[in-house]
Design goal:
Blueprint (H helix, E strand, L loop, with lengths): L4 H19 L2 H8 L3 H6 L13 H9 L2 H32 L5 H10 L5 H14 L6 H8 L4 H12 L3 H9 L4 H12 L1 H17 L2 H6 L7 H10 L5 H33 L3
Helix pairs in contact: 2-15, 4-15, 5-8, 5-9, 5-12, 5-14, 9-12, 9-15, 10-11, 12-15, 14-15
Length: about 270
């Protein structure tokens, strides 16, 4: 169907409006991050700073807020938990997609029902379990909680598996390969777009999570969001310092998204075939 000129105009107006809606709040934040204390108190939030080379706010935020240390612990938690989560989710999806067994639909329903259970509603019991095995105030408590298999990830993997022919599995079985070997060596590498999509979507969610790390970690081991919260909790912290700390937190996500965005689009393109 040919696009009319009016349709094109409406489409671009909507896209531009949506872009402005996202970008406008970031502009004052960037301006404030480069301003001195005197500039912040005497100028409008929409007025650019005198110099974009003022790095004092960023260095102060990194040094006083120990954001470098927080980034280190955040990276360890995310790498381990996402690796386990993606691997387990791919395994579950492979079993559900390739094999028929009793109560298969019941398993899918159980995973789906977890979407409707608020995390806060189960934390009293989960915290007691973690405390009883001595994992509270350690990174392993957060890693374990972050490593769970979710229904959204399962559906992303299932739709990726729809594009992988069953003949590949059958050829591997004929050559004497086991189910595990077939998955690890043949199927799993072909699921790279779905795995990357999961890493980005879930990684951003975990990176921004405040509730779990704040509940389970001690002051010596903090993720970036918990470390950032210290700036808001201190009445003596100038907002230009807070703005710089927020910008520091945005940069890693932006870099990762830029380099991996093509995999996200490919993975999401397959997930719409549900």
């Amino acid at each position: 169907m040919n696009e009319t000129k009016l349709y094109k105009v409406i489409r671009y107006v909507i896209l531009i409006a949506a872009s402005i809606f996202v970008i406008v709040p970031l502009v004052p934040l960037i301006f404030m991050a480069f301003k001195t204390g005197a500039e912040y108190s005497s100028t409008s939030v929409l007025e650019p700073p005198k110099s974009f080379t003022n790095m004092y706010n960023f260095s102060y935020a990194l040094r006083v807020g120990e954001l470098g240390k927080a980034f280190f612990y955040t990276a360890i938690i995310l790498v381990i938990s996402l690796a386990v989560q993606v691997t387990l989710t791919a395994m579950v999806a492979y079993v559900l997609h390739r094999f028929d067994f009793k109560f298969k639909n019941a398993v899918k329903i159980m995973f789906t029902l977890t979407m409707f259970i608020p995390v806060v509603a189960t934390q009293n019991l989960v915290f007691r379990m973690m405390y009883s095995v001595g994992l509270v105030n350690t990174m392993w408590s957060v890693i374990i909680l972050y490593s769970g298999v979710g229904i959204v990830g399962i559906y992303i993997m299932l739709n990726q598996l729809d594009n992988i022919s069953h003949e590949i599995d059958e050829a591997a079985y004929i050559d004497g390969a086991t189910h595990f070997y077939t998955f690890i060596k043949i199927i799993f590498p072909l699921m790279k777009p779905a795995c990357t999509t999961m890493i980005i979507i879930n990684g951003i969610g975990l990176y921004n999570d405040f509730y779990i790390p704040n509940l389970y970690l001690n002051r010596d081991v903090q993720t970036f969001t918990v470390a950032l919260y210290k700036f808001f909790g201190s009445m003596s912290t100038p907002f230009e310092i807070v703005a710089a700390a927020i910008i520091i937190g945005i940069i890693p996500i932006m870099i990762v998204f830029i380099f991996l965005q093509k995999y996200i689009y490919n993975g999401l393109a397959g997930s719409v075939k549900m």
